[in-house]
Amino acid sequence: MNAVNHSKTGWVFTGSNGDFCLKQPDRSSFLYFPLVNEGGMMSSISPKLHGQVTSGHNTFLTPPLSVEDLHNSRASRNFWVYVDGKGAWSAAGNSARQNAGMYGEEADDTELEAGLLWHRVTRESRELGIKAEITSFVPAGNDKVELMKVVLTNTSTEVLAVTPTAAVPLYARSADDLRDHRHVTSLLNRIYTSAHGIEVQPALSFDERGHRVNYTSYGVFGAAEGGDQPTGFFPVQEEFIGEGGSLDWPEAVVLNREPQIGAGGGVHREGYEALGGLRFAGVSLQPGQSMSYVLVLAIGSERIDIAALMDKYGSVRAFDAMLQENKTFWADKVNTVEFHTSDPVADQWMKWVTLQPVLRRLYGNSFLPYHDYGRGGRGWRDLWQDCLALLIMEPGDVRSLLLNNYAGVRIDGSNATIIGQQPGEFIADRNNIPRVWMDHGAWPFLTTMLYLDQSGDLDFLLEQQSYFRDSFMARCRERDVSWDASADSMLQAANGEPYTGTILEHILLQNLVPFFNVGEHNNILLEGADWNDGLDMAAQRGESVTFTSFYASNLLDLSRLLRMLKERKGIETLELAEEMALLLDSLHEAVDYESVSDKRGRLDRYYAAAPNRVSGVRAELALDSIADDLARKAEWIFDHLRRNEWIQSAQGDGWFNGYYNNDGERVEGESGHNVRMTLTGQVFPLLGHAAAPEQIPQIIAAVERNLYDEKIGYRLNSNFGGIQQNLGRAFGFAFGHKENGAMFSHMTVMYGNALYKRGYVKEGRKVLDSLYSLSVNFELSRMYPGIPEYISEQGRGMYTYLTGSASWLLLTMVTEVFGVKGKLGDLLLQPKLMKDQFDQNGKASVRTIFAERQLDVVYTAASGAEYGGCQIHSVTLNGAVVTLQRVSEGVLIPRSVLTALPEEGVHLLQVELA
């Protein structure tokens, strides 16, 4: 990354492990921070402690919210202080008085500190002479708990008499009830008070699952420093706020009312909106004196064992110990990959990017304020792209994940789109929506190929796995009337037994079916959409040229992989479902690839032969013949695209058309000053093999001319004008927002990756640097460290944290920029560093995992040396000279050299460039 003007970052890194601070964070809108654990507790928190606490779509402890609620809602985690003689003050900043005076001279001084994954806001009122430090985190482990510690300090010169009150709204139900049944579902509430707090267990769940007996409980519990229990409770919101009151100016606090329920609790209430309202004993704070309080927000699968919960979490000592454990847990997870370049800020920023794929695995695409769509879980595409980062960070878990994921493939080459909570769990359609995203079949092979290169595990291709089956057939064009929704969702053979095929069979099927599934211009049909979900209104005649090129590259790489399988494993033949022979047409009855009708006819024959079931008979086919067939298909597509989909501009550059709309019209092109161009349409021809070498400079020039904007980076598309109802909903968005012309990080990073792959390092570096500089420019982006889903027209970072672009950026930095990559299990070093990325000692390094060993790969460059002007001169491993095995791409180190090393510890690989 190029160094940027860090005076614009707003936030500043305060250590070496990603910790950062930000002055007056509440002066920036839309900020939120994730707090999560592996056990399913998913929280978000803003500088004023807005956000939500949940374990799933149907189990929200606090009210569900979207990003606009962060500044509009009065409901938040709140901690009130009544100061005798001075009135009420919110330690969280959420009072009507503080909000009204936010921009005045008497506004609170605030500072945010945060790290991996903990959050602290310090707020001080000079007027009242009091300071509050509130630290929040979700402890590592499997408990659905969020912890909060409040430290009150007297910063005045006089004694302060204060009365503290915690107030956390307890929503305690499904997000579905937020509007449609808000009051009715409050009637289900059963509210219990006990010595440490308030617990709610609604009698029924009242959502899309039906009216069921509810067992989930929700609670807010607390203790003061020294273990003192609350002295009273406010379990009902309306009683706490009073008539005419509100959560940001509640009567119980403003008038310092005594709670009706005293110490020990024991009172049961029913049928009201609940509140975790805990009154603590009044205390006189001497000047400089502090007092601490711990709050425990918990979700239980049944009534909560409060004594055990508070024994584990409910003390200052326990909080501090758990916080340290949490910091260590996340640091260990993130620091499996570390970068060292000339820019230490960029290196620490990458720690947050490295964390993001883990966050997406835990949150899915939901449960953060910008991600207010979705009901939890991940999509098919997410399963495979998140594995890209896991192969770098947590490679030990990936093999089983990949194997399980292939169980979601249908025999028609499509796949399940409803993903269960457990690895390999796929669920038949619940909403009766028949839809296929045409790009889904392309991603699994890309991820699997990375796994094979990293591991050398060619045996994985021969593992057996089942297929997914539901009521949809022929890529959702037909329904299987014999489908029984109560039956097992596995494809069956004619004998009624589940059918399994090799992983290689699954991969071949996913890439062969689309080859024949073409539109009138002989490109693969767009169907429901491709990677760009916004292109969802061209299901009949739309074509995705861009993913036609991706599938073609897969076919060629598959052909090469098969030949390597023969070379390495001595395999001469493959056993495939006999029906698949129809798709390998050149082996017996060749199809005219120029004929759309011939291709469609062959696909219809295949659908008829495998109508949601197979015979179970396997055909034994020559491996070389299959490889030849795949290569023939790939080369035909490359020639077809270069002949028919290349747009030569009058400006001397050119690009690939990416799409046809539902009227069968070419989408991209140039007419006078009107230019229609997509970045996606260029990325995949560059990323694979479709773009010929002589076309690459023209594509780069066209992208710079038509899509690059200094203010927001590389736009996803030029301004098409109009809403494009024959293409997709994306064009209903205002231009410059989301999928219509914003800087969409995912495609920008993939563009940078493609340029690096093709050897255009300077150009690729510019792409990655643009994204980095936009993200860290807090003056515009208004986001914490990390990469957003997209940059809006105004330069604001949108949909922070949950984006597949983080996986791609991490992958690009490790395998392309630092050139630490696999080649069927061996380590290939192919650095593409530029001279200004080396520190003042001429060094740049990356720590990563390869061959189950942690490696520090340290590059040392001669003065002025950079990519293109130098090569690897020598390599030492833990001080011992490594005999260089040069290949066309770089230097190869056999896997056996690395596996001979001890598994523990970090091994030093020093690489001299000259």
TrEMBL record:
<dbReference type="GO" id="GO:0005975">
    <property type="term" value="P:carbohydrate metabolic process"/>
</dbReference>
<dbReference type="InterPro" id="IPR033432">
    <property type="entry name" value="GH94_catalytic"/>
</dbReference>
<dbReference type="Pfam" id="PF17167">
    <property type="entry name" value="Glyco_hydro_94"/>
</dbReference>
<dbReference type="InterPro" id="IPR052047">
    <property type="entry name" value="GH94_Enzymes"/>
</dbReference>
<keyword id="KW-0328">Glycosyltransferase</keyword>
<feature type="domain" description="Glycosyl hydrolase 94 catalytic">
    <location>
        <begin position="329"/>
        <end position="581"/>
    </location>
</feature>
<feature type="domain" description="Glycosyl hydrolase 94 supersandwich">
    <location>
        <begin position="119"/>
        <end position="314"/>
    </location>
</feature>
<dbReference type="Pfam" id="PF06165">
    <property type="entry name" value="GH94_b-supersand"/>
</dbReference>
<dbReference type="InterPro" id="IPR010383">
    <property type="entry name" value="Glyco_hydrolase_94_b-supersand"/>
</dbReference>
<dbReference type="InterPro" id="IPR008928">
    <property type="entry name" value="6-hairpin_glycosidase_sf"/>
</dbReference>
<dbReference type="InterPro" id="IPR012341">
    <property type="entry name" value="6hp_glycosidase-like_sf"/>
</dbReference>
<dbReference type="GO" id="GO:0030246">
    <property type="term" value="F:carbohydrate binding"/>
</dbReference>
<dbReference type="InterPro" id="IPR037018">
    <property type="entry name" value="GH65_N"/>
</dbReference>
<feature type="domain" description="Glycosyl hydrolase 94 catalytic">
    <location>
        <begin position="630"/>
        <end position="819"/>
    </location>
</feature>
<dbReference type="InterPro" id="IPR011013">
    <property type="entry name" value="Gal_mutarotase_sf_dom"/>
</dbReference>
<protein>
    <submittedName>
        <fullName>Cellobiose phosphorylase</fullName>
    </submittedName>
</protein>
<dbReference type="GO" id="GO:0016757">
    <property type="term" value="F:glycosyltransferase activity"/>
</dbReference>
<keyword id="KW-0808">Transferase</keyword>
